[in-house]
Design goal:
The chain is an alpha/beta fold. The strands form two sheets. Strands 3, 4, 5, 6, 7, 8, 9, 10 and 11 form a nine-stranded mixed β-sheet that branches. Strands 1-2 form a two-stranded antiparallel ribbon. Strand 1 and strand 2 form a beta hairpin.
């Protein structure tokens, strides 16, 4: 059985923050005798002195300070718990499952999540970052709420084109490929190890397919970039993810023009059960705020 109550600790917190029983009583809409009684009961049940009177102000003893620090954490957590319960009673979702292709710019992802969290602090977003065909695999399973993934243009689901990601072949500035004349580099690349970002289902070479010869496989885009920086090979990387390395000259495009530029379109797709969910719409708007005009966020493509 607990010796003290949350209310007693909240009263102590209020007295310390306000500096007096009178001000704490005013803040908590309690009488001064009620505040004094709660403090007296708290100290009696703890068996230690937690407050001292200095002049006209009540201040914590060292023991009181240590205990209140822990109590404040518990009080804040309890307040969050009650706020979440209130949100659930009003129909606010507790969790949203978001599938995002690794090609989606991290700055847009993180800024969007921060905007959403400010508006819906009681809703958690479970982010699943995918590479290659993982997005389509998860879409087919249908267990998630919102998807921003690469998909076939003729995919027969309601979808919205979010952005076109530009991908270019790059290598470290000291890679031997740059000693080859630019017009001969395309042929030379066939002899250079390629850094590939793959999902867990495509890490082993297929006996009937030799495309994976002389390749390094990584399951995250950041690891692939690090491998290229460390001169394990060259790779096709989204420009949005390597701006700083291109700007400072650490990584260089293998070709001087746009002849080898690849474009990959990302689509936003919603689970059919989430089409009319206002919280899902809010997350969608937050993610796409700096990418598309707001009126285009919910425009479907057939």
């Amino acid at each position: 059985m607990l010796k003290t109550t949350l209310e007693q600790w909240q009263v102590l917190r209020s007295v310390v923050e306000q500096g007096s029983i009178a001000k704490a009583a005013e803040q908590t809409f309690k009488s001064q005798p009620a505040i004094s009684y709660q403090l007296s009961q708290l100290q009696q049940r703890l068996g230690i002195e937690i407050l001292n009177l200095k002049g006209r102000k009540l201040v914590l003893t060292e023991q009181g300070r240590i205990l209140l620090e822990q109590a404040v954490f518990i009080l804040d957590q309890w307040r969050d718990l009650e706020a979440r319960a209130e949100a659930l009673t009003q129909g606010e979702r507790a969790v949203i499952s978001l599938v995002v292709d690794s090609l989606f710019p991290k700055s847009d992802l993180f800024n969007g999540l921060k905007r959403f969290n400010l508006a819906f602090p009681n809703t958690h977003v479970h982010v699943k970052e995918t590479v290659r065909d993982e997005g389509m695999m998860l879409l087919n399973q249908g267990n998630d709420d919102l998807y921003i993934i690469s998909a076939p243009e003729n995919l027969s689901v309601t979808k919205s084109a979010v952005m076109t990601v530009e991908v270019i072949p790059v290598a470290h500035k000291e890679h031997p490929i740059f000693q080859v004349p630019s017009h001969l580099r395309e042929a030379k690349l066939k002899c250079v190890p390629m850094i590939q970002v793959v999902d867990k289902y495509h890490q082993q070479p297929n006996d009937e397919d030799n495309r994976y010869q002389d390749s390094w496989f990584f399951t995250s885009l950041s690891s692939a970039v690090d491998a290229i920086i460390n001169q394990l090979g060259y790779g096709w990387i989204p420009i949005s993810e390597i701006h700083q390395y291109l700007d400072n000259g650490t990584l260089c495009p293998i070709f001087d023009d746009q002849q080898m530029l690849r474009n990959s379109t990302l689509y936003l797709i919603k689970n059919q059960d989430a089409r009319h969910d206002s919280v899902i719409h809010a997350l969608e708007d937050a993610l796409l705020e700096n990418i598309l005009p707001k009126e285009e966020h919910h425009t479907p493509l057939d």
